[in-house]
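Hi D.,

Good news: the full-assembly prediction came through. Inputs first.
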Amino acid sequence: MANKTLTRMDLSEAVFREVGLSRNESAQLVERVLDLMSDALVRGEQVKISSFGTFSVRSKTARMGRNPKTGQEVPISPRRVLTFRPSHLMKDRVAAGNRG
Amino acid sequence: MIRSELIQKLADENPHLYQRDVERIVNTVFEEIIEAMAAGDRVELRGFGAFSVKQRDARIGRNPRTGESVEVEAKHVPFFKTGKLLRDRLNGHE
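Then the structure:
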């Protein structure tokens, strides 16, 4: 197994191949896809991509944490975190592709 | 927001593109990410987040209804870690 790391560049290259727009425009469109998703999440919306997965924003309440190195207690302020739940299709394809 | 709304927004921003091309752009992005993970690769999208594959070891599970023990096979599962910029934006630091 190769274990590469893909980046935006690989995604725009794929868009370039598939759709036949310029490399530059393909890159800008990939960026907009990510931006539109980020903006929706920042507004507190769920982003639900069928057969891919669901991104949702959850609010966490304040709690006391501990610095594991010093043992000192530190307050952790309330914050919003993003969770991703993969679709069944994604789970199945990832499991099948990495089997054996 | 769902997939079709994302496609619509991108189409509205790009009136010079055919609707079917905008659909292909959006679908290609998600398809590439799944294909990469199916090949065991990582997808790192700085500022947004990173998709990776985690290994889950085989374990003895239990059927919660009957209490019966069942062997659960080792498997690989998709994992997403939010990028720093998006995490900050979610908490109001632009």
